[in-house]
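lol forgot to send this yesterday, sorry. struct tokens for the thing we talked abt
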């Protein structure tokens, strides 16, 4: 049985940050996979989520908590070529030239892209973003069939 990154990521839907001084141990495991500094789950963790899923499947990964680090992983493709299960999308966030967001490609229409990701409203789920925020789309692996 082959499992895609997207299918595995779906299994984490609903995992969320805990309020106050409590921390979700699953999110903390994701954050600390490659970085020891996060003291709590109330930090940006979208890249940690993508890294964790890729680590579980032995796929290429950025090993960074910076969303834009994913612009260097995999093969660049156009949004029109994106496929569920194989691709990630990197977005800008605000006016900062370093801030971003990353998630697994779920779908897109003319003006929107849907991503399955972590830290989307402090939880794992699918969210909608404008395509004007897309910095890059990366193919993590090719369809083996």
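and heres what i got for the seq, position by position
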């Amino acid at each position: 049985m082959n499992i895609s990154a997207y299918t595995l990521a779906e299994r984490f839907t609903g995992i969320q940050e805990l309020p106050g001084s409590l921390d979700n141990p699953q999110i903390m495991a994701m954050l600390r996979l490659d970085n020891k500094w996060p003291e709590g789950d109330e930090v940006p963790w979208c890249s940690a989520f993508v890294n964790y899923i890729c680590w579980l499947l032995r796929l290429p990964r950025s090993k960074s908590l910076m969303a834009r680090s994913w612009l260097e992983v995999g093969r660049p493709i156009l949004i029109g070529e994106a496929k569920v299960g194989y691709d990630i999308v990197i977005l800008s966030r605000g006016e900062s030239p370093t801030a971003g967001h990353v998630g697994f490609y779920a779908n897109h229409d003319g003006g929107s892209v849907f991503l399955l990701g972590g830290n989307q409203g402090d939880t794992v789920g699918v969210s909608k973003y404008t395509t004007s925020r897309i910095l890059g789309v990366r193919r993590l692996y090719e369809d083996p069939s």
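The CA atoms of residues 113 and 141 lie 20 Å apart. anyway ping me if u want another try
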